[in-house]
Amino acid sequence: MSTILVTGGAGYIGTHTLISLLGAGYHPVVIDNFQNSKPEALSRVRQITGREVPVYAADVRDERTLARIFHEHPIDAVIHFAGLKAVGESVRMPVSYYDNNLISTLRLIQAMDQHGCRRLVFSSSATVYGDPARLPLTEDAPLSATNPYGRSKLIIEDMLRDLAIAARLGGDAAGTAWQIALLRYFNPVGAHPSGMIGEDPNGIPNNLFPYIQQVAVGRLKELQIFGADYPTTDGTGVRDYIHVMDLAEGHVEAVRFLLGGRGAAAPGGSFAEAINLGTGSGVSVLQAVRAFEAASGKQIPFRMAPRRPGDVAACFADAGKAARLLGWTARRKLADMCEDAWRWQSLNPLGFAQG
Ligand code: NAD
Ligand code: UFG
Q1: Predicted TM-score (pTM) above 0.85
Q2: Is the CB of 351 under 6 A from ligand 1?
Q3: CA 87 to ligand 2 centroid distance, Å
């Protein structure tokens, strides 16, 4: 079975994807510098799966470690999760975001090219759609960025599309076709059903679900709902929440697609396309709160607050392309997302910190 390098494999989506990859018979290898994760998360993956995964505690920008990994393992494809992802922080620290997100991707594709491994799954984001003019969002919708994090994703998408174009033109990368899936995630939430791994943000969470979870467990007092005057069903913001295990399975299908050479039918044998990973359903903040209360049996105190700058009213996917190309659709419901998130948070009120 194929060997898959997973950058950022100790993170939230990475750990869940390791479980799906192992379940599908792949051999993952992890590189993570633990900048936003803990080694304990990987121990939990080991406990859940009973399998050892080789781990390189290093930065993806470190060319020597990348060379060592490609030398020591027959890497067939790469899933590139590593990067910084907090929108607000990216506005305050743009240089760190461009340095980490862009340079890690450049070093990675250079190492891949040198070692003849040209199959890549990249973590993009629905944030590249900016403020949607039309819903649901199809992959050909206009792209824009309103912050350095989003811009780093847009630049990387363009860079990766350029790789495929060069191979088609027989230029820089003549004879070396790339197979690249640019997966645009909507809002990943929930946790593995074991309750042993889940999202463990540093400090006070920025995102809705981790915040609700910490209110439910008593770490935070009340939720602020950012905006009750949006043009949506109940005035609160609408998003496409997707269970992280569905997302993980989407990565397995993307790897299967690329390794199966199914992108090679594209012109010049090179493939670099964006694919939405979402459920296709929009859920409001109030609906999410009510669903979490029902799943947890806990009341979530909240108060209405002004809109958060930079937020859009509504954002949800047209997930048809993933179904057509990858044969993948999200299976889990909002209730599953809430139940699994609650199991993780209630069993681990302090996240991975309590060991
Ligand atoms: P995460 O922070 O939990 O995981 C990222 C992992 O990468 C962490 O373990 C971190 O330590 C590691 N890392 C960061 N920079 C590194 C570097 N230079 N070298 C080695 N390791 C490094 O984030 P996540 O939620 O799992 O997200 C994974 C990817 O998906 C990111 O690229 C993110 O931008 C993207 N994404 C996430 C969301 C979301 O809401 N979680 C939405 C859309 C896209
Ligand atoms: N919200 C609140 N209170 C909070 C946190 C969030 O009301 O304490 C609301 C927001 O206003 C929004 C909704 O909950 O209406 C979802 O907010 P999140 O912060 O959970 O998610 P976003 O859609 O703003 O952004 C997330 C990631 C981005 C990513 C985007 C699309 O943070 O990095 O999804 O994938 F780009």
Answers
A1: yes
A2: no
A3: 10
Together in a domain, 163 and 217: no
Q: Determine the distance separating the centroid of ligand 2 and the alpha carbon of 181, expressed in angstroms.
A: 24
The total number of structural domains that make up the chain:
2
| 193 occurs within a structural domain | no
Starting at the earlier edge strand, list the strands of the sheet with 119-125: 55-57, 27-32, 3-7, 75-80, 119-125, 179-185, 271-277
The CA 81 to ligand 1 mean position distance, Å, reads: 5
Q: Which of 187, 236, 277, when mutated, tests ligand 2's pocket best, judged by the most ligand atoms within 8 Å of its CB?
A: 187
Predicted confidence (pLDDT) per residue in 52-105, tens digit: 999 999 999 999 999 999 999 999 999 999 999 999 999 999 999 999 999 999
Last residue within a domain, chosen from 255, 277, 299: 277
Q: Which residue range is the domain that position 177 belongs to?
A: 3-188+241-277
Per the CB < 8 A criterion, the answer to whether 207 and 88 are in contact is no
Asked if residue 18 and residue 147 are part of one domain, the reply reads: yes
